[in-house]
Amino acid sequence: MGELVDRVDEDDRVVGVVDRAEAIEKKWLHRVATTVCRDPRGRILVHRRSDGMSRFPGQYNWLIGGAAEAGESWEEAAVRELGEELGVFGVPVRPVLRFLCRGEISPYWLGVHEAVVSGAIVPDPTEIAWYGWFGEEELVEAVARGEFVSDGVEALRRYLKCGRASDTLPFISRPCSPPGGTAAGGGGRWAASPGGACGWW
């Protein structure tokens, strides 16, 4: 058996332990814990997924995370993923929001946390091909140009609607693009739309 996760219901109550691959195949709900990494200036870490990833290869994302293991709390999963993907250890995370994400591949409960990362980052090259720091407005503009993981776009809309980070961190917009061009190509605009849940429950 592969990666074991808690199967949950539409109220996020655990109903069993299953293989994650089976959960995805059969569209069973499970938990995915992510973190918004900010530097001390309030900028958000954005990364491009490695081309060898089985899901969303080569696409950009602003969330670090993955499936919570069976029996693992939301915070434990978020902290573990920071270590595995960024080589960042001992950084506290705080919950921001949680919602039932219908997902491009499969539905799941998505938990979003925040962390301030001030030390060195050592990304796992099998998962992260590039990273940079974006101000909020720049991130929204980059998402509008495309090439971002679709599930993360919905999470960003909800996150910005919450306005949580303004409680504790300044927002500073600063240009930051991957080598050879902008974070994502194409045109168009994206704007937060009304509606959607916000909060940790």
Sequence-ordered SSE layout with sheet pairings:
Blueprint: E1 4-8, E2 14-19, H1 20-25, E3 31-38, E4 44-49, E5 60-61, E6 64-67, H2 74-86, E7 94-101, E8 108-116, E9 128-134, H3 136-144, H4 150-162
Parallel strand pairs: 3-8
Antiparallel strand pairs: 1-2, 3-6, 4-5, 4-9, 7-8
- The overall strand count is 9
Order of helices and strands: EEHEEEEHEEEHH
Helix coverage percent? 10-25%
Distance between the termini: 31 Å
Q: Hey, roughly how much beta strand do the residues contain? A: 25-35%
Main sheet attributes: strand count, strand direction, barrel closure: 4 strands, mixed
Q: Would you tell me the structural class of the helices and strands?
A: alpha+beta
Shape field:
globular
Give unreliable regions as ranges.
Answer: 164-201
Lateral arrangement of strands in the main beta sheet:
6-3-8-7
Mean pLDDT: 83
Rounded radius of gyration (Å): 16 Å
Query: Total helix count?
Result: 4
Give an overview of the whole structure.
A 4-stranded mixed β-sheet has the order 6-3-8-7, with helices on both faces. The chain has a 3-stranded antiparallel β-sheet with strand order 5-4-9. Strands 1-2 form a two-stranded antiparallel ribbon. Mean pLDDT is 83; it is low at 164-201. By secondary structure, the chain is an alpha+beta fold. Strand 1 and strand 2 (14-19) form a beta hairpin. It starts with a strand and ends in a 39-residue tail after the last helix. Helix content is 20%, strand content 27%. It is globular and about 40 Å long.
State the main characteristics.
4-stranded mixed sheet; 20% helix; globular; disordered C terminus
